[in-house]
Amino acid sequence: MALGAFEGACLQEASAQMHPGDLLLLYTDGITDARSTAGEFFGVERLRSAACTAATLGAKGVCDAVFAHVSRFQAQRVQYDDMAVLVARVATR
To answer: Of 62, 58, 54, nearest to 26 (Cα)?
Structure first.
């Protein structure tokens, strides 16, 4: 759900401990809802795999890898939804 888009939305707060080298990846549903020519969704598991494959790269490299994986997955299918990815990595000491 888009934050702040709906008045009175019921949201839950959570926290997570991040450590040096950890990667945070935020994305819109256009990434996971991208479809192949067979109608299959890209999904969370493919997203996780794409990010893990590029995990040693910088934040831009991870973003680029995710978009490249989605593009290959979609092949010639037209993109129908917005796609956004935000990647942050906790600095190592």
So the answer is: 62
pLDDT digits (tens, 9 = 90+) for 1-39: 666 678 888 888 899 999 998 999 999 999 999 999 999
- Distance separating alpha carbons of residues 88 and 58, to the nearest angstrom: 9
In Å, how far are 7, 12, 25, 41, 91 from 60, measured between CA atoms? 33, 29, 11, 24, 15
Instruction: Tell me the C-alpha distance between 43 and 93, whole Å.
Output: 34
- The model's pLDDT over 31-74, given as tens digits with 9 standing for 90+, comes to 999 999 999 999 999 999 999 999 889 899 999 999 999 999 99
SS (H, E, C) the chain: CCCCCCCCCCCCCCCCCCCCCCEEEEECHHHHCCECCCCCECHHHHHHHHHHHCCCCCHHHHHHHHHHHHHHHHCCCCCCCCCCEEEEECCCC
